[in-house]
Predict the 3D structure of the following.
Amino acid sequence: MLSNRLRLQAEELRVIRGGKEVLKGITFAVAIGEVYGLLGGNGAGKSTTLLTFLGFLDLAGGNARVNDALVSEDVVAARRSIAYLPESASLYEHLNARENLRYFLGLAGSAGDDESMEAALDRVALPAEARDRRLADYSKGMRQKVAIALAILRNTDTLLLDEPTSGLDPTAIDEFHDLVRTLADDGKTVLMVTHDVYGACQVADRIGLLRDGRLVGEFSAPAGGRIDTEAVHRAFSSREAV
Amino acid sequence: MSGFAPVFREAGLLKRDRAFIGWVVLTLLLSVVSVVGGIAEVSKQRETIARLIEGDREDRLEARAKQGDWGGAAYYSFHLTYDPPSNFAFAALGTRDQEPWKHRIRMLALEGQIYERDAGNPVLALTGRFDFAFFAAFVLPLVLIAVLHDLQASERGAGRHELLIATSGISSSPWRLRAWLKAGAVFIAAALPLLVGCIVSGTSMTRSLMAPAILCGYLAFWSFVSYRIARRERNPSVILATLLGVWVMVGVVGPAAGKLVIDHQVPVPQGADILMTQREAVNDAWDLPKEVTMDAFVARHPEWSQYAAVDRPFEWKWYYAFQQVGDQKAEPLSLAYRESRLHRDRLAGWFAWLTPPALLQRSLQRIADTDLRAHMEYEANVRLFHGQLREFYYGKLFPDAPFDTDALGGLPEFDPGMAAP
Ligand SMILES: Nc1ncnc2c1ncn2[C@@H]1O[C@H](COP(=O)(O)OP(=O)(O)O)[C@@H](O)[C@H]1O
Ligand SMILES: [Mg+2]
């Protein structure tokens, strides 16, 4: 069965927020080990899409499935299998990196051992001397790195990342993309929201273009290659559906 | 993982939250201030009583040495009555702030002596002194509101709300535990000084346990209200305003409205009227035929009927008889006064179930024996003691017993626990 290979499915997803139809029936699926980039301008409905997979929003229509199960039927199972990196993720300012990781991992019910925490912070290249400083003293990029480390440490099948590269400098963005590729190669499924066309094309297996609550186009990378930035950019900037 | 892991995790987070720690420290300080203030006031009252007891002994000795007849001895002697503070009174001073807890009474008509202080018609303070009961009833809820109102709103504001829920998997996860821990910390900060105060004051075990238990229930009420309202609303300012509104309603407006209605429903005679009635009766007696007074007296004390004849223009037994008749005249007013005050108090007790701060204050005052019931018991003590004085002197005056200084040693002694059930 095809659907067994799918981690995330949106089927004619409709969401109303604040009296406004924010998602107007979008359909897409993300397979195991796939990196899916959700691209769109401000207010297109990208973050809203991620929130529906976590069961935070009531659906006005359609279905959201995680591992084939309806989110609405078992929201706890959905949340447990997903590591979520919120838009402009803010962890606790008055705690240092390690303390934040320990707290949130504890909240997830898994005791983070020091070794894997250091390893995760190494992977996101957070300077070692910063790890004992409170996040209040961090730059935006450093905070983002800690949040990414947390998502990795959750060790879930699926990662939902909302604008994960915001605040990161170009080098860090490249390193992050490598990291995402490694995770996908390890069988993790990544659904990543961004409005960075170039970045999305670097890392994604597929890209969905979201505009005003509608999925107006999808792009797939050719075998062994990358998605054509040019084509995506053209679609992204045009007013028409692709 | 141990079942306490979440508790340690959240406690660890709270421990680092400076604003919260600030509130806890403030709570601790205010609790200490209220307890220390209460203990100081109570020990001041104890010292006053001790001083008065010493003075009373000297007065009695002096009166005994100076006087040459029973009537004079009775006339010139003062007798101390007092209501010693209980060993929990420091926490809830209650009526000890508004009602007299000591008198120096004479053999004269009594009712006026008891209500002399009431004649000024004191404005009844809604709140009273900053004792522990006041602190707990009015200040603690504000602290709870401050630390609980933005339990979730602060996380929303910081953009962590969804992350916390998504990470914990369960929709209510950290909130309830955090609310419990915060309320628990506030409770401990408030109760600890109280318990130390209990130990210092030698408070009985029952009282020392009952007071924190009641406090715990009270804080549970406020925590529940804060938690529910904070859950329903998103905007922290709206939550705060709503909770402060509840506080004003049940803490200030409710009790004031209740008092207004109860006072209107149950009229209470003025203490001054009792004083006037009795004083007029006593003054009038000088001009009345002596038989009128003696008949009224004998009606109450038939045992002295055989000695009721007054032959000389002035006799002490007649003098004290009209003092007693003055009390008899004021008695219906005095009874009505006491009964209606108790009636009001009973109604206030029922009404307090709608206004938790008042309920807490009343409960603590009940434990501390500083409620109206305890004050009325003291008044009953004073009447009982005054009755004993009368019995003693009547037994000398009416049969016209020869004066005997030594017999004055047999004067009844006031015992604060004499009328206790
Ligand atoms: N909490 C909310 N309540 C009401 N409307 C919201 C809320 N969050 C977002 N919206 C609306 O939903 C639409 C999509 O928002 P969002 O999914 O955050 O867009 P994106 O992430 O693509 O920038 C926007 O028009 C926004 O105004
Ligand atoms: Mg967004």
